[in-house]
Amino acid sequence: MAxxxxxxxxxxxxxxxxxSLSGAIQQAMKSPEIGEIYGALNGLEGLLKENxxxxxxxxxxxxxFQRLEATPSMALGSCRFKLPNYPHEAYxxxxxxxxxxxxxxxxxxGGNDSMDTVLKLSNYFKECGDDVKCMGIPKTVDNDLPVTDxxxxxxxxxxxxxxSLIEVAHDSAVYDLPAVTIVEIMGRNAGWLTAAACxxxxxxxxxxxxxxxxxxxxxxxxxxxKVKELQAKTKSxxxxxxxxxxxxxxxxVASSGTSATDAFGHAMLAGVGGYLKSLLQDQVGxxxxxxxxxxxxxxxxxxxxxxxxxxxxxxGxxxxxxAAAGETGAMVVFRRICENPYLVSCDKAGIxxxxxxEKTVPASWITPGGWDVTEQMDRYLRPLIQGNPPRFEKDGxxxxxxxxxxxxxx
Amino acid sequence: MAxxxxxxxxxxxxxxxxxSLSGAIQQAMKSPEIGEIYGALNGLEGLLKENxxxxxxxxxxxxxFQRLEATPSMALGSCRFKLPNYPHEAYxxxxxxxxxxxxxxxxxxGGNDSMDTVLKLSNYFKECGDDVKCMGIPKTVDNDLPVTDxxxxxxxxxxxxxxSLIEVAHDSAVYDLPAVTIVEIMGRNAGWLTAAACxxxxxxxxxxxxxxxxxxxxxxxxxxxKVKELQAKTKSxxxxxxxxxxxxxxxxVASSGTSATDAFGHAMLAGVGGYLKSLLQDQVGxxxxxxxxxxxxxxxxxxxxxxxxxxxxxxGxxxxxxAAAGETGAMVVFRRICENPYLVSCDKAGIxxxxxxEKTVPASWITPGGWDVTEQMDRYLRPLIQGNPPRFEKDGxxxxxxxxxxxxxx
Lengths: 410, 410
Fold this sequence. Notes:
Two copies of one chain form a homodimer.
Chain A: E1 3-9, H1 17-30, E2 34-40, H2 43-48, E3 52-54, H3 55-58, H4 62-69, H5 89-100, E4 103-110, H6 112-128, E5 133-138, H7 154-172, E6 179-185, H8 192-195, E7 210-212, H9 220-231, E8 236-242, H10 271-283, E9 287-292, H11 296-299, H12 306-324, E10 330-339, E11 342-350, H13 375-381, E12 393-394, E13 397-398
Parallel strand pairs in A: 1-2, 1-4, 4-5, 5-10, 6-8, 6-9, 7-8
Antiparallel strand pairs in A: 2-3, 10-11, 12-13
């Protein structure tokens, strides 16, 4: 007999999460094992409050799915709620809700923390003897989930970052003056996003000229020397830097100089960009400016990757397919079968092998001294940014999709 | 007998400047009055150093023109050099260079300051009795040039700002928590760019909920009250703010709280975004964050407006057409003939009527209290962001054009 499914989204936004949601709903509609298709608003937090909607009712046409896939951020909303260890009242509450809504399939689209939730719930339901299949669907712009070759959401962020880098380099090159432009990119511990700046080297004087990842310790003196060396060769030096770079002692560069306070007495952080800019003005005396790509790198659907969106749909669908076939306690992953031509398969990994683990950039993909990434990085990244997905416009601007958020009570 | 022309670019980058350059070159190629087509690298500064290139040689095919039109920033480079008042040695130097290169036509693509240069040079050559036609071609993301209905470069920046606003609003709405997001937009004295945020109101909860322009004095207490009022209605409040807003005493909000210094002893500016964020954390106690759209708003060709690029080509061509017909001391302008359907003509204005003058947002287009813009602004802006121009990609990223910068000596 068919059982109902529920799906939620958790963690930070990407432009590919809704594509995975779309894939999951489309596959569920084709699966006789699945009855109602519920969505949890704001992840587990909303689920516990029974903020549950009917996704079958929301998606009325093929066009709705295409528009959902082209929409950034999270149509179901998100939460930062991490399921506590068992025993905790949340487990009983969830079990009771799942029974009442006759849930047999639980899907969670998220990153490391969300996979921890999938791990805990799949173990819990197994222990209880309840037949609830729990599957994780990966997403994160950080690309730091293990086992999977890469994560949906990352390719589009990489494309936006490389595109922006090229444009910032064009903007920076107009004056006949030596200048340094620092572009600050997301990623506290893993440097994948910042590394994507290397893709921009198809013009505008080979920018970026330096790529600083959190995987390499930052040495201010060596940095200043390196900038001087670059300035001897090029007038407009472009530096891509991760927000998460650290000094040799492990402390974040972004947190240095915290003695400053603003007009309201709050501590003011210069951030990595501000710090490097000041360092260069002080030690090199050159014109320097800092650009922060900010939240747009994870929400710019207008610049998404066709490959990324297509793969996100596929991986969402595959999770539902596997769960309907009886799989549980797993996350769907990509395995790269071939680099050229690019070919991936969509497989599964034990959730215990991914939850709470972080994949950083391998040391062998970083050049000696930590100033750049190797050719291998470009080969790895290049296929992930190819193509443009269908985009929808209204009155000259993106026409994004919103779900009907009518709550369904049972 | 045909005379040669020279064209230069000056001031800050936009994504439409190269389109005007393309239009000018294409028209010159069709004009029997014009012989050689020279480009001055880095504007007047480069011209004085005779950094002059041959544009006819650079543009080899129709495809080259299309790619140049799709390329952001300034293919010829820029300068911030303002021609001093006559008498000054620069005049004699320029006259000598113009004679040697047999220049009969001078075109300068730029904003207010560049039009001042065109004014001075056209007067100077008239006084000398030299037959050199001097024409200004407008560009500025700020849209602050008088007479012309709008300025090339502005429409694309407006489209990028509105697109980004929609995406930032999607990003900000994911958590079930009250939060304020402040989006800082360029414009020191004129609020046109910030006003373009109003175009984003086609979804995502009507964001932005507040638009603060430099044309209205900023009152911190009234602002805090207004934010509280908005928070009673919506969870995620989005505020678009111009970098140039000022207190009632005329001082820049961005400059307040300058007592803070960074790790190197440099004064640290929180900027407008940082100031408003701190103000809200202090007075409202809510989660607040600031996003700065930065230089991408003037260089994001990947998100340019079809109307803007097409018009920029037209206005560049029109300047050459007018000069070839004997016009001098003028800037080409757009006159809006009809709003719906949108129709503009491409006319000329006396350079004295535009040089050094600034067009700000009319008071009647700002709502009482200065919290928003009126419907008239949307009607004015909407046609300027329509359509997408041809875009060129290579390996998943924009494929921008570069001129051959071989110097031509005469």
